[in-house]
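hey m, so remember when u said the tokens were messed up on ur end? i reran from scratch. heres the input so u can diff it against urs
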Amino acid sequence: MDRRRFSLAVAALLGVPSVAFSAGNPFLGYTQDELDKAYDQRNWAPNSAEVIGRYATDSAAVRKQYPPRTERYGSSDAETLDIFAPAGAKGLPVMVFVHGGAWRALGKDDSSAPAPTFVDNGCLYVALNFANIPAVRLPDMATQCRNAMLWIHANIARFGGDPQRIFVSGHSSGGHLSAVLLTTDWSTLGAPADLIKAGVVMSGMYELYPVLLSARSSYVKVSAGEVAALSPLRHLDKIACPVMVVNGDKESPEFQRQAGEFATVLAGMGKLRGRFVLPGKNHFEVPEALNDANNSLSKAVLDMMKV
């Protein structure tokens, strides 16, 4: 479905007059070029390649010092996770991290760097892996992440984690997927409704409609119904725990707007645990804050986990 037909389909689903989504004004007064740039963070972060490179090198150094245990939670090769745990771990809180990468790049091996912040402070850290586009579609990615959380709840005690103290965090497209996990009705999947005790969403997208009007629609192929199902802002009634919302002040206006709106509605529900706008940080630099246990965000997260 082309962008124009997609916008009309979603407009009909939402009951919005289709004239509001004309070809020259696809969303909030943006031209198409402006909207494309607003959802491509490389336009706002000249050091993006350098920072993304650090994800891999910093993570490799951490894995050498803190060798993880890799486990499989599903049948495909992509459905694995790395568990980082202190020696002699027993009944410790668990932080699960969902990596970003625009839904089509990166993996658990780029997500190890925050592990010492948690392991050195009496927590388990779990880096999720899952298949990316184009190997699977976005709904399949969400299903894999949900399956990973169910596996963690059922099995993490064997590795020293407390299944009653599972937390989730994620960045960028992983911030979106983390918000999807936070708005999942776990009771329908045979798990406790409060499977996740709190969340940290970083630089995510919480309403997919404008995202899919941008150039990202060239590779993210979803129906209007799937957009509704995978837009966390439309499922706020399912959030059963406190949530921290984080972004950098050098991110694109659209990412900052999405974070602000998500935080505002969470605050109105009494579910906002904290709102962090990291000064001087662009989109790609935001998750590196968790690499330092001594900064304000990491301290707030550890306090949230009660360690």
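this time it looks ok to me. Confidence is low (pLDDT under 50) at residues 1-23. if urs says something different then somethings off w ur setup not the seq
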